[in-house]
Amino acid sequence: MDPQRERIQADLRGLLSGEVHCGDAFVQMYATDGSIYEVPPLGVVRPRGLQDVRASVRYTAENMIPLHGRGAGTGLAGESLGPGLVVDFSHSMRRILELDNEEGTVTVQPGVVLGQLNRYLASFGKQFGPDPATGGVTTIGGVLSVDSSGSNWLKYGSARDQIVRLQLVLADGETIEAGKHRVTDDPAIDPDPRRRELVRRLAELIEREESIISANRPKSLVNRCGYYLWDVLQDGVLDLAKLVVGSEGTLALITQATLKTVPVPKHRGLVLMFFDRLEAAVQAAMEAQELGVTACDLMDRRILTLARDVDPRYAQSIPRSAEAMLMVEQQSEEAGEVLERLQEVAMRWQRRRRLAFDFHLAISPDEFDLFRRLARRVSPTLHRVQGRERPVPFVEDFAVPPATMADVVPRLQRALQTYQATASIFAHAGHGQFHLRPFMDVGDPQHQRRMQDLANDLYAEVWAVGGTISGEHGCGLSRTWAVRKQYGPLYDVFREVKRIFDPGNLLNPGKVVADVPQPLIKNLRPVAADDELAAPKSGHYLADPASNASPSGSSNGSPSKPLELQLIWQGSFASTAENCNGCGRCRTQSPEMRMCPIFRSAPAEEASPRAKANLMRAVIGGQMQAAQLSSDELKSIADLCVNCHQCRSECPAGVDVPKLMMEAKAQYVASNGVDSTGWVITRLESVAAWLSRFSTVSNWGLRQPWVRWLLEKTVGIAQGRKLPQVAASSFLRKAERLQLTRPTRRTGNKVLYFVDLYANWFDTQLAEAFVQILQHNNVSVYVHPAQRASGMAKIALGDAERARSVAAKNVAALADAVRQGYTIVTTEPSAALCLTHEYLHLLDDDDARLVAANTVEACSYLWRLHEVGRLELDLKPQNYTVGYHLPCHLRALNVGSPGEQLLGLVPGLTVRRIERGCSGMAGTYGLRRENYRSSLRAGWGLISAMRDPAIEVGTTECSSCKMQMEQGGTKPTVHPLKILALAYGLMPEVEKLMRARVPELVVT
Ligand SMILES: Cc1cc2nc3c(=O)[nH]c(=O)nc-3n(C[C@H](O)[C@H](O)[C@H](O)COP(=O)(O)OP(=O)(O)OC[C@H]3O[C@@H](n4cnc5c(N)ncnc54)[C@H](O)[C@@H]3O)c2cc1C
Ligand code: SF4
Ligand code: SF4
Predict the structure, then answer these.
(1) Residue numbers of the chain with a pLDDT score lower than 50
(2) To test ligand 3's pocket by mutation, which of 579, 645, 647 has the most ligand atoms within 8 angstroms of CB?
(3) What is the pTM of this model?
(4) Across the strands, what pairs with 911?
(5) DSSP per-residue letters across 440-502
(6) 643 lines ligand 3 (CB under 6 A)
């Protein structure tokens, strides 16, 4: 940390009760957002409340340090980036303060996530109207500061239309309440002198410049460019709150907001209108507003083609011949009315106007959700393209008057053609809002020039019809350069507004107005050069970024040591980190998604997958020394990844953050080794073998609180965690006795059972159940005697060398069996993930690939048998209600939920899906003393769902998840295969287990 940052950190820590971080890692994590820019700040403040914000503002004002408010950092224009001090409201100012049912308002702190607010309001039948697509992530402070809106703008408008009052901290640290205020000098009318003066000066300015203000108003329905000076001064009353909304943190910081709420619509429906020409769709959309629809979104052929590939249900409903589609939404209190009005739209555009050739109605809630999510589901496909050209947000937000769209769209297409730029068209066409992301290589200077030229040309077309360069994303770093061009003399009025609020230009300077606005292509996030991307292919060695042709170079001037990569990357190390576009989706709090369990339980930027990709990018780009990967600071951030793989599946850009973190941990372990708990955890197989020799004593000890206390003190295994009891003899030994350890000469289905740690040493009944089920279904079973536990704990902890050694032994044993026609099947989802995915990061050989291609999780294997009619169905009724939890590692295998499906075959059994996200156990993460509480917090949804009296027994495929499910109560959790074995009549003893009560300190 440089001395300036060190001093600021020390000063502010003395002044604030919230956190202050000026270290290298934090600077990097807050240097980017959802935009194409990177600007490292001096540091980060996480205020706990109003007083912290005021103290930060006063301190920065005294020291002439700029200050940048920040919510979730999902802004697409770089609005929250800057070289000063970032104030992160999303960390500790996340409270919903008051719901006023009479006034129909809700008062919140700025860090509240919009989606969480809406879930809270839903229990009162209410919601916040504007619906930005990032609702599961974005904060109210961000929504207000950008004046966000979404598809439903036609009904709810933007954030500005829903504001009642704001609590603001001004540039000098003073606090005011901002709502509607009479322009007055009379303290009896407005007792707050600071506000009186502010209101008076603003009103004078607006009155004086009235003609310039009204002459330069864009004709588009939406506008998020410049300050909002229209309609805010009426009859001597200034709506100060409205004026501040949309000002991107450049006028004041919002510390509290009172928002209007609206009733949740009872019924919603969609009609998808299909057109054989884009122009016809645009023509139709121009009529949307007069038809009174609540949303009308336009998608072009490229998006529709991708949608058909994403989901067969889209393929069924969207005709191949469609060149464009309009997705039209209606809402009403009456279900019949929704249908009637959508049919009216369809009739008009298809029959009367002959614009559309077909339509599809989506009225049921499931179908409505399916199609409403279409754009969100397709966007990952755009971002996961290979190669250096990516969809780039830099002209992604212009808006035009809807009546001009027919003129504008062909001109936009011509401009794109001129610059050989590919872009799909997505637009909230009902209100003339376009989201265009041309494919560009931001690292290529030629493309950079093209970006600037294209922006000039596109914006000229937009201005020619009275449109605006931003309809809902703001100016930030990517558009402020064009604000003067859009507004001419009005720009100077905006500058005067800024001076009235912030004479020292300290609040988020350079956004909306600036002395010298930064050019579009300055401060671009660095991209590694091609040779750097290819370099690690031959060895596991990354060339020194500082001596490479990286455009970023080394920010601190000293060349960093070359990084010896611990994992196999095949030239993809840099590109993996760079694939992260900063969209912030991985900060989601939405229950529809699983990522990221650790961020969800304690929302802090460093816990997010985005932060981790950022740090690795900084190491690759040379902004951070490679040696820092061996530091405790980076290790503590890497440890916030528990290798659950949920972000890898759900991130729109498919960034493999777990692999990046495995590399980071491996770098640390290579230099520092593992700690004592890690030592035990990475040697669990040997520990289990040893404990098993004295199983009676060991299992007695596990149940004794004093032994557990000792265990916690000596090896760090959490005292309160219920642990599995060790078997007296391993399953592998039993398999030998059962003569399963020799390959068969039989033909037909042949399975090599990969037993893994848990079924071998702790739950041999599970292994027996699986073998019996296979034999019952006429499948030959082979248990290779040389197999070892998969080593997932070693992988998760970054012990790459030991993990590689285990992987090599297993692959050597298993590959031969595959060549003899065996399919490798394992009852542990983590082991399946190891063999199919993780081993390929450790071993670069054909045998590892062979094993990966021929490994299947046990329930998936049986379900496949069922699908080809080869699974016996002589199952006896079981009268239980079981709660099924889908483990993260099974989800990461992308095989659906085969265990749940198999249980669905058992007559009489009621299977209820518990959809509460990750169990929080994350393999061995929840075993550690220091993780115990956060593990319980992350898995609390699942633990409490298990307490539902309707659920008699829990069930899941994963041994760690089982431990967590049994942690919070006395109901047993039984593997689906055991229930299947019971239903087949193969294992009557499972009946006892189904009725068992989970004891203290150990699991069943
Ligand atoms: C994939 C994607 C889709 C998007 N779709 C939409 C969309 O449909 N509609 C839409 O409107 N936007 C959209 N956006 C843009 C972005 O999500 C919104 O602008 C969002 O409201 C920003 O909120 P945030 O919490 O991330 O704020 P940030 O990005 O953190 O900050 C945004 C601005 O608010 C300021 N700010 C934040 N908190 C405060 C505060 N308390 N006081 C003062 N200033 C503050 C910051 O300084 C900055 O200027 C999208 C972004 C992405 C990546
Ligand atoms: S990791 Fe993925 S979801 Fe998270 S910010 Fe990066 S691209 Fe977005
Ligand atoms: S793998 Fe899981 S824990 Fe790690 S960053 Fe991704 S979602 Fe978070």
Answers:
(1) 530-541, 543-559
(2) 647
(3) 0.94
(4) 882
(5) E-TT-HHHHHHHHHHHHHHHHHHHHTT-BS-SSS--HHHHHHHHHHHHTTHHHHHHHHHHHH-
(6) yes
